[in-house]
């Protein structure tokens, strides 16, 4: 058993490195910050590891088929004596599973059906699009047999019903050998036996009647199940197999991945090294469907005595396609299939030179494990120190041959990392000569190891529980057609309704909220969508029944909904201050002042020390310090004017920018190292009645480098010049600045239930990479949050519990192709969902009241808002727009939480919701010279800002604290 809570309190105990350098492990169970809540493990099933139907159907099943296609194809070519088979010859030398006796018969094993029971090491990892993916780490580090036999248990010493095994072997005999068996006796009479070898203690009880030993005759034995190395089998067994008189299950050569002596030696330094040989045989896969497969192979770097690379059966992979979270691709697309530019692998791993990292790259050495040609560990990136990375750079720079695998951290429960040891049960179909998966195969077990001390001989053992919930299974089975370029869109829409209904704690899900969960056309109602399900399905009658079931989860049509009841009991708190022309004018002018005023160089890396950049700069110093001082002075005046001077919190959360590599071309980074400057988040805290709790409203106040100034393909010169940032992200900074007066009024009136913290985060853009959010999240989890005020005073804020973070990022550009939509993107967990529900209610309140406001004299007869004619002219007054806030859950492909600071908070277990416009990845005005006032839609942006402010106020007054 393992506890699903970690011990992360105490300064320095929860560091969060840059995601571009080291993507954090998915945290399962109790999250780091809340340190409580429902356990991942059921009280009545402490050994069970639940897996959703969607993981099995959309990731695992197609992923297993892809791996079977690749590995079995290679094994077949090896067994048939083909010279190019894709398995490194070094792995075959002195390999007991591919002995000389077996190798000599290559091409003469005509009866072999290539049954494999390959145990795979799988785990969940996170990619740079925020997708939690089942990932292939390679072959099981527990050896070739343990996962298969453990798959017939459900917990220690408690077996699955014998019928499960019978179903599997019945299908195997029929599909592979064309032999029909009805029961145990038939299987025995068909000649099936088990030779246990060293596995005798692991065998389930039903296996006893099939045991065969070397003392027995082979008469009548046709199928022998054994994981014993071929060279160690009894001589009679080897002879019978080589002569075609006996089938060995699995194909003996399939276990060669566990017999390579070189990797056994490497395992002494790298505990999970036995995973690697099988991983080498599978091509990299980053697409959102199927299993994620990190790149692995061999790297050859020319040098004295190492001029020529050896023949490595296709495993020489000297280049790599980078991905990053700012790429203009959708989450349902395969980025490496779209952007096929390959960079030199050594540069990808180790170079911090500006021409190598460009705008969005960073050295990836922390994401890789490397060993020498003689299988000595050179670098274990996830655990490496800066000095160990430098030592690896020197060794590779001298030239030679090096093995590697990209390594992303496996999922964690508390302080354990967890792997699923799942058998890949497959065979080569007789007529099609293509691999197929075997049905009803054992699903193996899971192993958990302490992160700080991996001992593969002493894992905590758990067992998979693949859920089989009726409505979810129906969604998967019924809606299996491609739709509008979004695979599984209807099935995922059904899943959202079911998941949120179960997690919300509401007796019935409000219809308005349910509608905003769906990925459907903007004018399609919830009722229309439910009515369309039969036409979308492969079985209309079952789809009607499913639609009826979904209806029963919703509040009744024509009756006051839960949402309406909340509206009646909770009138808007802030719209009186925000739904007016004064707010709109201030919003426009505030954005304009930030974007087009004196603050120019607003990327944390400013200023860059190269000629192309320096020639374009209007002045040669970073402006983040001055911008920060301006914001703090602004809040000091707000607090004084509002009568909160002695109660409000105003100050900075300082830290230094640290990396494993030298970015000495970056003035901001260099001055941090030399102590001439530091980075800082800024905090303005407005007091509520309960000062032990806080709700955060956050933005980032840095801006990105402009792609069209940098990239030659877009007309650039290689200069790194910070964007004006009108939308990204001064549209959010302005919202916080205007929110300050609103929350101060609520504070004076005693209406804030808890504190509201306005926090300006630094370093969201590259190359700093969510630096401010990472620092703040670390401090919150560690319980080490301290506010530095002017005059040297330091306030300890660690006792305050943050019950939620609303992150605003790009909120004032109305999508021309799908207008008047914005996203409410919650992080993982019911607490984030509750914050999203408050935002939805605020949105409904706004929409309900626009009809009243638009009848006022100043708005009557006004049409839609228009963007300004130029950067200086404020748009004319227009009707208040009705906005549709789409609630995009973390697994919704349209959620862009991953592309913001919000992802960092969610990963750390801090309840979070992103407010963002309906982001159009193909538009101008994002990370380019057009991010100016000309791209700002005033009426849309001010309405979204008003809804966000109301959401924060609601959360500060009604959402209960947890943890």
Please name the defining characteristics of this protein.
single chain; nine-stranded mixed sheet; alpha/beta
Number of domains: 4
Radius of gyration (CA) equals: 30 Å
What structural class should be given to the helix and strand makeup?
A: alpha/beta
* Major beta sheet summary: 9 strands, mixed
Care to count the β-strands?
Answer: 30
Percent in helix? 25-40%
Task: Kindly describe this structure.
The chain is an alpha/beta fold. The protein folds into 4 domains: 1-12 and 46-289 and 413-468, no CATH class; 295-407, no CATH class; 470-562, no CATH class; 575-958, Aminopeptidase, CATH 3.40.630. 31% of the residues lie in helices and 17% in strands. The protein contains 29 helices and 30 strands. Strands 1, 2, 3, 4, 16, 17, 18, 19 and 20 form a 9-stranded mixed sheet that branches. An 8-stranded mixed sheet has the order 21-22-24-23-27-30-28-29, sandwiched between helices. A 4-stranded antiparallel sheet has the order 10-15-13-14. A hairpin with a 2-residue loop joins strand 5 (153-155) and strand 6. The longest helix is centred in the N-terminal third of the chain and has 27 residues, at 53-79. It is globular. 50% of the residues are buried. The model has no long low-confidence stretch (mean pLDDT 93).
